[in-house]
Amino acid sequence: MPYPKGHKMKVRSKIVESAAQAFRANGIQDVSVPFIMKGAGLTHGGFYSHFDNKEQLVAEACRYAVSDTLALLQEAVDQEKQDPKINVVIDYYLSTHHRDRTEIGCIIPALSVEIARSSEEIRQIFTQELERMITFISNLGGMDQSKGSALFSSMVGSLVLARSVNDPKLSDSLLSAGKQYAKALVNS
Questions:
Q1: What number is the average pLDDT over the span 43-61?
Q2: Which residues, in sequence order, are CB contacts of 91 under 8 Å at separation 6+?
Q3: In this model, does residue 2 exceed pLDDT 60?
Q4: CB 19 within 8 A of CB 58
Q5: Half-sphere exposure of residue 56: CA atoms within 13 angstroms, side-chain side
Q6: C-alpha distances in angstroms, 79 versus 69, 84, 115, 170, 180?
Q7: Under 8 Å CB-to-CB from 64, ≥6 apart: which residues?
Q8: CA-CA distance, 108 to 149, in Å (whole number)?
């Protein structure tokens, strides 16, 4: 019996979602195709009917994860009355919730170091997705791309450092300092 229309796309979407979650939590190198397929509720044998290789999946997972993060940030903005709206994004991005939930967090701080050593194809996709994130930040903050880049870079750096240390107080203070600096940058 044939699968219903759209079945292959639904399965592919499950694989991409599983990969995005696994890559955000564990990095690219430490995540195997069987692990991703298991996370999608599938056997690894079906992987190659959807993707040519893991690299293609990494590229799609980056696109998916950035779209997912942008949707979360937009939802947070839409639910808050706070002005300027960019402060809602700063508060969410540099929150303990975002720090502690890497598997659903922004993929940019999670994979930047690994992406720098990846193929040109993956770096190109990552570059496009980073530009999309900076454009969102810039537009929401009513600032030019240069200032938006500086703001997002400081947010990513604060989050990376807060996730890296094993001292909870230091981690919290890095998030707090990052928020304070980011908001000061917006108001400058």
A1: 84
A2: 179
A3: no
A4: yes
A5: 9
A6: 15, 13, 33, 30, 22
A7: 16, 17, 20
A8: 13
The CA distances from residue 95 to 88, 134, 158, 163, 172, in Å, are 11, 19, 11, 11, 9
Task: Outline where DSSP puts E strands in 15-138.
Answer: none
Distance (Å, rounded) from C-alpha 162 to C-alpha 71?
23
H or E element that contains 29: none
Q: What is the pTM of this model?
A: 0.88
Give alpha helix (H) positions in 27-144. Answer: 33-39, 54-79, 85-93, 96-100, 107-115, 120-141
Q: What is the mean pLDDT of residues 163-180?
A: 97
Of 18, 25, 21, which Cα lies nearest the Cα of 110? 25
DSSP track, 62-86? HHHHHHHHHHHHHHHHHH---SSHH
